[in-house]
Amino acid sequence: MQEKDARQKRFEELKAQAEADDEERKNSSNSTAPVTMEDFEADWNVSQFWYDEETSRALGEELVEGASEGTNVALVSAPSVFVKLKNLMKDGLVPKCNIHLLEYDNRFALFGSEFTFYDFNEPLKLPAGLKGHFDRVLVDPPFLSEDCQTKAALTVRWLAKPSTIGDKPDRPDRIGSREEHPRIIVCTGERMKDVVDKMYKKAGVRCTGFEVRHAQGLSNEFRCYANFESARLRWTG
């Protein structure tokens, strides 16, 4: 009980701080106090399973590698990567860029303008300004169902820059710049492979050998899919 009260107090302090300096938070390196996923208790009842530290960092680094201050990055239902990226940018460990979290859990609204409420049941019910806005997108659909995966994929298509989704990249090894296709990363259960292959085929997304791990542990085997390769993300099929 004391632990829960302490976490709630910490959360209220973070919320008050965020409301006070929302303009400064638009530059993700200006946060005055680090926020970690320990400040947000996962709720398994709504399919919340945070990545472990190593996975969050690896995915964040892959997503923003080669990015610039003008690069727009969306994290869809992946708050642990969003929080990790904020801290990595604050510490100067990854390129500074514009990151945005789309998430169902309103606790993350403490990030102000960097947060948008997102319900996969209404995949396109989002602010018009986000349409075709993002150079990089990472998505982790909350449920391992074809319905959820399909709707999340519609969201990714809607968010990504118009010239990127619809044509398979000619040079997937060179993906990442603003002039080419954006980096698309999909993290989900192994049994969703057929759905992912179908929904992201034109974007060049393929299964990689990267192991996605969760802090709480999951019995479902997870896979990472991407439309680019790197030393960590190597296509397996």
Automatic annotation (TrEMBL):
Region (Disordered): 1-37
Keywords for this protein: Cytoplasm, Methyltransferase, Transferase
Basic and acidic residues: bias regions: 1-27
Keyword Cytoplasm found: yes
Cytoplasm recorded as keyword: yes
InterPro entries tied to this protein: Efm5/EEF1AKMT1, Mlase_EEF1AKMT1/ZCCHC4
One MF annotation (Gene Ontology) recorded for this entry: protein-lysine N-methyltransferase activity
Pfam families per UniProt: N6-adenineMlase
Uppermost EC category: transferase
BP GO terms, sorted: methylation
GO cellular component: cytoplasm
Compartments reported by the entry: Cytoplasm
EC number: 2.1.1.-
Database matches in PANTHER family: EEF1A LYSINE METHYLTRANSFERASE 1
Family designation: Belongs to the class I-like SAM-binding methyltransferase superfamily. EFM5 family.
Function: S-adenosyl-L-methionine-dependent protein-lysine N-methyltransferase that trimethylates elongation factor 1-alpha at 'Lys-79'.
Name of this protein: Protein-lysine N-methyltransferase EFM5
Species classification: Eukaryota, Fungi, Dikarya, Ascomycota, Pezizomycotina
Name of the gene encoding the protein in the UniProt record: EFM5
